[in-house]
Automatic annotation (TrEMBL):
It comes from Gordonia asplenii. Residues 35-54 bind DNA. Pfam families: TetR_C_33 (PF13305), TetR_N (PF00440). This is TetR/AcrR family transcriptional regulator. Residues 12-72 form the HTH tetR-type domain. It comes from the Bacteria.
Length: 200
C-alpha cells in the first residue's frame, strides 16, 4: 500500500508538472506556444508521459483552461464579496475582470477566445453563466432597493455589461490604430453605466 501511494503521488506530481509547463508556455507565448513537444521539453518528460498522465494536446489545453477558470473565479468572487452600493459592486466586478485580464493576459485570452474543444467551450460557458448570474443578482438587489431602474432586465443587462467589458479589454491586444490600454474606456464605461442604471 505505501508503495502504491508513492506511485500515485508521483503520477499526480508528474501530471501537475506537465500542466505547469503548459501554463507557463501559454503565459509566455500564447495558445500557439502550447505544443506537446514544447511541453515535453519544458516539463522534462517524454511525450508518451504526457499522453499517459494528461492526454492529447486537447486534454492539456483543457487542463490549462480549468486553471484559468479557477483563477478567474477567485478574482470575481473577491469582487462580489466586497460591500458597497449596487453601483459600486457592479463597477468592482468590472475592475476585477480587468485586473484578471491585465495580470493574466493569456489566461484571459484563453477564456475569451477558447480553443474549439467541446468540453472547454462548455466549461467556459458555464463559468460565464455563473459569473453573469452573480452580476444579475447584484442588479436585482438594486431593483429591489430602488437604486437601479425597475425596467432593467437583470439577466440581459448582466450579459450586456460582461460583453462591453470583454470588448474593451480585447481592444488592448489589437494591432491596429484602435488598440488602447483600456483604462480611459473603462472609466467612461463606468460613468455611462452608472448613469444609465439609475432610476430616472
Amino acid at each position: 500500500m505505501p508503495a502504491e501511494s508513492r506511485q500515485s503521488r508521483k503520477r499526480a506530481a508528474t501530471r501537475e508538472a506537465i500542466i505547469d509547463a503548459a501554463e507557463a508556455l501559454l503565459e509566455t507565448g500564447g495558445l500557439d506556444a502550447v505544443t506537446l513537444p514544447a511541453v515535453s521539453e519544458r516539463a522534462d518528460v517524454a511525450l508518451q508521459t504526457i499522453y499517459n498522465r494528461v492526454g492529447t494536446r486537447d486534454a492539456v489545453l483543457l487542463a490549462v483552461a480549468e486553471r484559468a477558470l479557477s483563477a478567474n473565479r477567485k478574482y470575481m468572487d473577491a469582487a462580489y464579496a466586497r460591500p458597497g452600493t449596487v453601483e459600486q459592486r457592479v463597477l468592482a466586478a468590472a475592475m476585477a475582470y480587468a485586473q484578471f485580464a491585465t495580470e493574466r493576459p493569456n489566461q484571459f485570452r484563453l477564456l475569451s477566445a477558447p480553443p474549439d474543444l467541446p468540453e472547454a467551450l462548455n466549461r467556459i460557458a458555464d463559468l460565464t453563466a455563473e459569473q453573469n448570474g452573480k452580476l444579475a443578482d447584484v442588479l436585482r438587489d438594486g431593483i429591489a432597493d430602488g437604486t437601479i431602474r425597475a425596467d432593467v432586465d437583470p439577466d440581459v443587462t448582466a450579459t450586456l455589461l460582461w460583453a462591453a467589458v470583454d470588448g474593451i479589454l480585447n481592444l488592448t491586444w489589437r494591432v491596429d490604430r484602435h488598440r488602447t490600454d483600456g483604462s480611459e474606456l473603462l472609466g467612461l464605461f463606468g460613468a455611462i453605466i452608472g448613469d444609465g442604471l439609475r432610476p430616472r
